[in-house]
Amino acid sequence: MSGEGKAVCVTGASGFIASWLVKLLLQRGYTVHATLRNLKNPNKVSHLLALDGAKERLHLFEAHLLDQNSFDPAIQGCEGVFHTASPVITTPSATKAELVDPAVKGTLNVLESCVRIPSVKKVVVTSSMASIMCKRNPISPTDVVDETWYTDKEFAEEAKQWYFLSKVLAEEAGWKYAVENRIDLVSLHPALVIGPLLQPTLNFSSGVILDLVKEGKKALPTGIYPFVDVRDVANTHIQAFELPSASGRYCLVGITIYSSQILKIASGLFPSLSISDKYKDDLPTVATYQVCQEKAKSLGINYTSFDVSLKDTIESLKEKHFLDF
Fold it and tell me: Which residues contact 115 (CB under 8 A, 6 or more apart)?
């Protein structure tokens, strides 16, 4: 067990990706310091306390993105910090301040704690393909997206795409601070993350699949969507921390796929969902754009097949009573 005797910190630990990260870290023998905004909320805490190894090696801390120094107690004594905490609000009413301030200031607050605490050797930040892919011109089928791409900040501002803007600004601020303060930093950029849920609440990307299965293309207009399995994302975080060669940015996309194709696969996997009429005669003939997988594969990541991810997502949504069939 590679983590034996080592402590690491996971911020925003109750989230979809972070819960899986905590689970895999505990499996590998790490002691995990997990931060949450509210330790009294059973929806945020109970599924973490139920994980194997939690009783012995999971320690919970309350911390807030906008409170300076609030991450110090959790990071104390840790060799690695996984910063996953960042607001995801995709409702049309979400404001720039609600998204950008916590994302940027939260990243800097966590990094400032890392500078103050000498035990920290490496920081892995959970960013998003949102800080890579938001462009003025639509991505064409011949494009191959890679780690050199950045979201167009001016366009994101004009289009009021505050989530995209929050991700690219937080990433920029994080890299600038890391370089100035000699922090060994890696940033990971997952697409829409699916797979089984550990937490009892519905997260945004699982909700995308739920809406698609329930409402068909009304929920997700016929377009191309990039997906990745949550278990692959959590695993990549650990590889990024453990491998000395890991550096810079990593796109994490297992597949780019049309929404109508997702419905076709779901219909084949779960005939009782009766969704075949929701994509009739609408399977695309145009190829999707691609996202380069080379850099992620250099960390030893082999992506889970989309059919497996989708099957596990839908079964999990049923098990947690978000979906009846």
Answer: 181, 183
